[in-house]
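User: Hey, quick favor. My workstation is busy. Could you predict this chain's structure for me?
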Amino acid sequence: MSKKGRRRNRQAAVAAPAAPPARKLSRRATIVATAVGLAALGVVAWAIRPAPPAPSPEQHAAGLLAKCTAPGAKPDACVQADLEQVLRTEGQQAAFAVLTLVSSSPALAGYDHALAHHMGRLSYTVIGDPAKGAASGAQNSMAGMAGMEGMDHGAPSQPRLHPDDLLYPCNQVEGKEAQIGCWQMQPFAVLMQTGNSFEKAFWACSKSGEFAVMCEEGIGQAAGSRSRIDRKPPESYCSVSTDRTAARHCMVGAVKDLIMNALDVAPGIKLCRGADADFAKDCYAAVGIMHAGIEGRPQARLFNCSGVPDAYRNACARVGPQKS
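Assistant: No problem, here it is.
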């Protein structure tokens, strides 16, 4: 090789950087891989960490009472909203245990009757909604609620429902207050036993005598529940009655159910917008009854009803003189 060629080789050798020893490179790669692996394991461990245990009914009831009896709170609406959440996430037994503890508190005296009825309506909704995966025992629990189990209603002893008697147990309950509560819930029992036959529910209410209004409003509450399950308007259930008055009572019950479920008057107002002129007053009056229960400030209620026709705005807000 010539002198010039040897010189070029020496220059190339000097210019090329020396490669790190193979062992050092392998050690660095191992360190990096180990660090990445440990980080990944940490992420996985965090992701699959056990969920914190649900509070006991006693703990839940104590927290609920503190929240719902605080200054400015609306106890009935507050408790009902929480019960629905417990029912849907922890099941009917947990919700009923919380309800029992909360209802015994002097701070909620007078609300226990309404809360128990609300539990019955919620159970009916969950039972019929496959997307919620109702617990296997929910249907039996609903049967108990339909028979006013756990409430001093003078209802007959077990069995709570008679498949061959759609008027039972209300046709054997004694005492006016007990009968009012029973007939309001009876449509849920009828629907559960007849595969959701609203025609038979209206038939049962037609046999309830002086309690027909409460019973037909109960059908409306069931219609509101079914409307969220079947994605049909409540009118489609209430309109099966050939009795126009009964159908209107049903719609009033549906309005109340929609508002109570949402804790918002908007769904009720929306339903009333399609009401006939001769029914609109009663429809918006039903909105007003529920409105006053979830919003204590008259000016706020008027604001919520600002889109309602002037003739019915005060009824919707449940304030001042109401136009006839």
